[in-house]
Structures are given as structure tokens and as C-alpha cells.
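> example.struct
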């Protein structure tokens, strides 16, 4: 009798688990579709004609595939200028960000660092309160960096949140490694570059990805500090293309076969700005997940 009751409980538990798995699967499927369907819609519109888009604004497969939208984008010089400027932000800005973040995080993770708690609280304070964009603009103007690449690069030289994540990761490392290196006569820079950084690649990859995405999506400082058309960032170039496309459709709404600045061209411009950074993410994904988890262990 008892064996029958135990068997019945196991069967009910198994059915309950299977029902829970089905519910979780449905929820994850809904989230996946909410992410994939808009992306497929943007991709389909970018390969469609304006007439097909007017007939059906939501499409997953274009009725008639055309490359005219991408041809018009590639012929627009603003996009190439945006790529060049944004790549400069990446090549110069990301190494500078990593150097400042890594060196400062290592110093703040060491127990013997003078006034360590004061600097940590000061950094946290800047996350909640800052001087605003006007003092920063006046500073850039005073040191003659307006309308230069350096105003954007130095304006976002350090992110306080990323700094705290990296500091927490360094604090989770065994202190015996640093102590043994000091006994062997290594200075702080040798300890950082020869010991700490090689064993901290997960958090380094994570912060690199964070900074790369920030630099790739840079538009705010570029809009405030730069007025030269030859230094426009990629996101501002995309904004210019989209705004001209909206204006063109407003004044030429009767011409459904118009190619220049059509909705397909705008969607193609969106994909041209998304794809490069999307291609980098898979190579850093395993380090990205591990780094985020380990960086949040110790506060």
C-alpha cells in the first residue's frame, strides 16, 4: 500500500515538473519571438521596395528582394565618415578606458592603498551626482579640445560602474599572489601586468565589451563637442540619414517607388551600424558571462 502511495506521489511530482517545463518553455519562446521578429522585420524592410512596404508594413520575408537601399547607403559619404570616426573612438578610446579602469581598480583593491575608502565613496558619489555637461564643455573649450576627437575620448575616459565591477573582481583574487610577488621584488606595475591581468581575462573581456559598445554607440559627446562634418560619429550619421528620410517622405509621399531616404534605406542604415558590434559579441560571450558573475561577488 505504501509503495503505491510513493509511486503515486512520484507520478504527480513528475507531471508537475513537466507542466512547469512547458510553462517555462512557452515564456522563453515568447521572449525569443519578441526579440527575433522585430529584427527579421527590419531585415526584410531593408531588402524591400517602398511600394511593398506601403502594402504591408510588417513583413518577415520581402516580396521582391532589392539591393537598391544598401546601394544608396553605401553611396552616402556620411556613413563612411561615421565609420571612420567611430573606429578612431574605438582604437584610441577603448585602450585608454581599459588602462585607466584597470590601474585604478587594482589600486583600490589593495588594502594598503592610502585613503582607499575615501576614494571609493567619492567614486560612488560621482555615480549619483555630477557637475553636468556645461562645466565639462567649458573645460574642453578652455583646453582647446572643442571640434577634436580628443574631446569625445577624454570626456568619457572612465566609467565609475565598470571601475567598481573590476575592483570587486580583483578583490576576489587570492592576496597570496600579490604578497609572493612583492617578496620576489616585483613592483606594483609588474604585479598588475604580469600577474593580475593574465589571470583576470574574464573581467577584462567583459569591460572591453562594455567600453566597445559605449564607444560604438557614442553620440552625446560627439553631438555636444564636435561641429565638423568630417568628424561626425556613426550614430549621428545614421540620425542624419533617418531625419532626411522622414523629410523626404513627408514632401514626396506620393512617389511610392522613391529609393533615396526611403524606409528601406533607414532600416539598412540601422543594420549597417548594428552588425559590426554584433559580430564581435560571440567571441567574448563566454568571458562576458563569467566576468559579470565574478565581478559581483565581493562588494
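> example.seq
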Amino acid at each position: 500500500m505504501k509503495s503505491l502511495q510513493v509511486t503515486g506521489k512520484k507520478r504527480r511530482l513528475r507531471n508537475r515538473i513537466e507542466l512547469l517545463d512547458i510553462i517555462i518553455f512557452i515564456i522563453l519562446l515568447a521572449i525569443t519571438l519578441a526579440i527575433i521578429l522585430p529584427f527579421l522585420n527590419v531585415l526584410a524592410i531593408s531588402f524591400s521596395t517602398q511600394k511593398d512596404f506601403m502594402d504591408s508594413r510588417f513583413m518577415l520575408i520581402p516580396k521582391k528582394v532589392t539591393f537598391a537601399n544598401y546601394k544608396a547607403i553605401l553611396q552616402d559619404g556620411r556613413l563612411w565618415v561615421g565609420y571612420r570616426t567611430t573606429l578612431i573612438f574605438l582604437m584610441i578610446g577603448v585602450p585608454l578606458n581599459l588602462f585607466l579602469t584597470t590601474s585604478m581598480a587594482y589600486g583600490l583593491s589593495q588594502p594598503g592603498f592610502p585613503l582607499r575608502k575615501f576614494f571609493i565613496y567619492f567614486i560612488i558619489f560621482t555615480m549619483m551626482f555630477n557637475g553636468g555637461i556645461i562645466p565639462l564643455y567649458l573645460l574642453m573649450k578652455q583646453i582647446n579640445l572643442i571640434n577634436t576627437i580628443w574631446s569625445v575620448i577624454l570626456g568619457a575616459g572612465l566609467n565609475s560602474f565598470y571601475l567598481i565591477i573590476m575592483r570587486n573582481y580583483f578583490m576576489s583574487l587570492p592576496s597570496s599572489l600579490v604578497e609572493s610577488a612583492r617578496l620576489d621584488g616585483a613592483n606594483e606595475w609588474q604585479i598588475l601586468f604580469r600577474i593580475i591581468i593574465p589571470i583576470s581575462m574574464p573581467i577584462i573581456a567583459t569591460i572591453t565589451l562594455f567600453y566597445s559598445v559605449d564607444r560604438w554607440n557614442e553620440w552625446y559627446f560627439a553631438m555636444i563637442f564636435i561641429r565638423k562634418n568630417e568628424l561626425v560619429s556613426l550614430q549621428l550619421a545614421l540620425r542624419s540619414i533617418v531625419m532626411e528620410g522622414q523629410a523626404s517622405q513627408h514632401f514626396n509621399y506620393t512617389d511610392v517607388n522613391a529609393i533615396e531616404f526611403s524606409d528601406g534605406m533607414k532600416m539598412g542604415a540601422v543594420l549597417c551600424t548594428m552588425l559590426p558590434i554584433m559580430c564581435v559579441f560571440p567571441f567574448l560571450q563566454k568571458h562576458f558571462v563569467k566576468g559579470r558573475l565574478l565581478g559581483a561577488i565581493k562588494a
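> remarks
The domain at 73-299 is CATH 1.10.3720.10 (MetI-like fold).
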